[in-house]
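FMN dependent NADH:quinone oxidoreductase
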Amino acid sequence: MKILHLISSPRGAESISTKLGNAIAGKLQAANPGNTIVTHNLATTPFPHLEEVQITSFFTPAEKQTPELAEAIKHSDEAIAELMDADAIVIDAPVYNFQIPSTLKTWIDHICRANKTFSYSENGPQGLVKGKKVYVAISSGGIYSDGPMKAFDFIEPYLRGLLGFLGMTDLTVYRAEGLKVPGIGEHALENAIDSIAV
Ligand SMILES: Cc1cc2nc3c(=O)[nH]c(=O)nc-3n(C[C@H](O)[C@H](O)[C@H](O)COP(=O)(O)O)c2cc1C
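Predicted structure tokens:
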């Protein structure tokens, strides 16, 4: 099995979501000695924000691509190839201002391509990214899985909706949450790692 681990925290070795993502990927790898991990750090090797040239390239047939458009579409082609090659995807999703980091959003902007990762049929939209297991490692200062801040839990519904739209419906979320809450934060990562069942 090939495991793709996407890091999105800018905090390097201090990152809690990366520690949780590493633990998930590590347990997946340990399940079978043949399993391999490809790590893509989106914070240090980000995809470019979508500009007009990229969007034009997405909607231009291959035979009509100019050299400029062919160059612009390479990032998206690479992101999609890396995704399609993986059997399992571990996505680190730290909460920054109630959302995922922009580097992870930019990755999403590059993997969403009509007729590559989704299509529209008579029966409505169809996801084309099938047979993947997805694990999301959320880290947050507050608590969003339950309680008074649950209405601010935008990340899990967003990722479930977006990745499900692309066909990735087998998604498990692990959370190291309440990191800034005294009495909870001290054990949040340890508890999240202990809860990993892969
Ligand atoms: C700029 C910034 C914004 C943050 N925004 C939130 C937030 O909206 N909600 C929250 O619960 N925690 C927030 N936090 C706390 C982070 O979620 C927490 O530090 C978490 O560990 C970040 O993940 P990381 O360690 O993988 O980078 C924020 C932290 C920073 C530095």
